[in-house]
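Pasting two entries for a bug report.
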Amino acid sequence: MYAPFGTGVLLAREGLLRLSSSELELIRSSGEENVGGVAALGKALVLLQRISLDVIQAEEQALTARALRGMAQIQGLKIYGVKDPDSPRFAQKGGVIAFDLGDIMPTRVAQGLAERGGIGVRYGCHSAHLLIKHVLHIPPLLQQLQGVILTLFPRLSLPGVVRVSLGIENTAEDVDTLIHVLGQIARQPRAGENRDVQQRMDDFATAAARSVYQNAPPSRSGENA
C-alpha cells in the first residue's frame, strides 16, 4: 500500500480477539512501535482513498488478468494461487502473482527481468518459508540441511518463487513487457555455471542422509530405524 518496507497491519473482526488487559499490555510491551512506519501507512491510506480504492482495485484486476493470461502461455511457468481470471475467486485476488519457471532458479529469473526489461521483482521465500517449502515439495531433511549447504556453497541459489506486484503506476505495456521477457527467459538454454554447484549440493545431501541413516540408534528389534 506504498508505505515503508516492514510496515504491516493485523485486521480482525471486532470482538474476535478477546484479549484481557494484561494480554494487551504484554503485546504492547513486546517491542518498540514503528512510529514512522505507522504514520506513513496512515498517510498512504489517505492518498489511496482520494484516488478511490474501488478504482485502484478495478485497474489492478484488469492488469492482473492480462498478466495471468499471458503467463499461462509460457511453457514451464507455474503460477501459485488463483491463476484463472474467469474463476469466481479472482474477485478476491490482488495484483500480486507468485510463480516459478521450473528448473530455472528464481535468482536467475529476477536477474533476467531486471536486465532485459527493467522489471523489479522479489524472489525467495518472502518471509513465508514454511509455506513456500510446502508448495515446492522440499523434503524435511533438505530443509534442515539448507543452512549448512549454503554455508559450504555460498554461490548456491536456494529454491523459492518469484513474486511480481502490479500497482497503480503500472500500465498494460508494462504487463506486455513482463510477458515478453519471461518468454525469453523460459526459452533460453539453461546456463551451465550452476550445474556443478547443484551437483555438489545433491552429493552433499545424499551423503548426509546416508550418514544419518547409518548412525541412527537401533530399534527395539535390534535393527536400524
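Entry 2 (this is the one that rendered wrong in the viewer):
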Amino acid sequence: MQSRSLTKGGLYRFLSTLEAAAGDFVTIYVEPAYFSDYIDGLSLGPRYAAYADGIKAAVHTDPVTQSARKYGTGVAIFWNQAGNNYLVLPPFPVTENKVSVGELNTSLLREALGKRYVVGVVLVTWGSYAIGVFDAGNLVESKTGTGFIHKEHRKGGRSEKRFARRTEEQKKDFLRRVSTRIEERFGGFALDHIFFGGNKLISKPLLRECRYLQSKALMVSPRVLDVRYADREALANSLAEITKSLVLSF
C-alpha cells in the first residue's frame, strides 16, 4: 500500500487520469458514520466477489483505519482488477452511501470538491492564537492575538508550587480570551466545518471552555492541522492543508 496527500488541484488531476484508464470498475462512496460496517456488509454478486474481498481486506488494514479515524470524512473507493485500486479520504465528508458496479463514477467526489464551503479555523499554541473564516477559499474574517504565560519554574518547594498555580491561572485566562474571540469571529457566519490546529493538548480544554465550540461540536473536524505557530501566516496557509485529500493505493 502507498499513500499520498493531494491538493484540490492534484485530486482533480488524479480523477482525470483515472477516468482515462480502462477497466471494469467498482465505485463505492461511504459516509463517515457507516465506514467499516457498510464495507463489511458489501455484496457485489459472483462476478465481482473478488473485488469485494479485496476492498474489505484493504479497509481493515491498520493504515486505512487510522487514517479514516483521523480524517473522519468517509471514503471514496475506486477498484478494478487491472491495478487501479484506490481509497480516497476527502477533506470534507461524503454525504451519500452509493455503489456503482461496472463503472467508474467520480461524480460525487467532483461535486464535493466543487462545493462552496464556509470553514472556521482555530490555531492555538500556549500564548498565541489565530482565528479565521474562509468562504469559498477566501479569508474573510481573522483575528490574531497573544497572551503571556509563565514558563515552568524548576527551583522546587513553595516557589515552584506558586509559579505552577500562577501558570495554571494564566492558561485559564488565555483559554477564556480565545473562547471569546472564537464566538466573536464565528458568530456571524453559517459555518460548514471547523478545523483546529497547533498544540493538540489545547484542543480538549479549549472545547470545554468554549460554549460556541460545544454547540458546534459536530462541525469540528477530528483532523488536527499540523502547524508550529498560531499567527497570521499560518492561518493564511491553513486552507491548503485543510483541502488536501489522502489517496491510498493498493
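Dev reply: Rendering is fixed now. As a check, the viewer should reflect this: The domain at 2-114 is CATH 3.30.960 (Translation, Eukaryotic Peptide Chain Release Factor Subunit 1; Chain A).
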